[in-house]
Specification:
Number of domains: 2
Order of helices and strands: EEEEHH
Largest sheet: 4 strands, antiparallel
Radius of gyration: 21 Å
Shape: elongated
Helix content: 40-55%
Number of helices: 2
Strand order of the largest sheet: 1-2-3-4
Amino acid sequence: MISNNICKVAEFDDAVFYKATCSCQSDDHTQTLILEHDPEMCDITLSIYSEVYSNNFWKYYDTWFARIGYWYVDKWIRIKFATFMLFHGYIKVENSFIFRNEAAVVDYVQALTDGLEKVRIAKLNRNKKNAS
């Protein structure tokens, strides 16, 4: 299925995998969605995975003076993150994922609706097998 910002990458009897991309078109902003029937929970689950990156100042500044200044800022942020991780054991981060047009939102919902129907059928078939 080819659509706005989302595509099906794998399909099994009881699971459908999607890859969604952010409207900003950055390779760093993607989501992997897994819609599946979980036999342990006896229910349908949706898992959304994404990687979160800290800021990369180098790709936004093109003058040597700006790069030197932001090199220091970049090092300060790295030290700050490392210190927080050392004393707290985790780093709190956020990830934004943007759909900039209605068609992308509709395709996202439609992909999940189609996948949900397939996984519901797998759930019913598995329940029938277990009942027999």
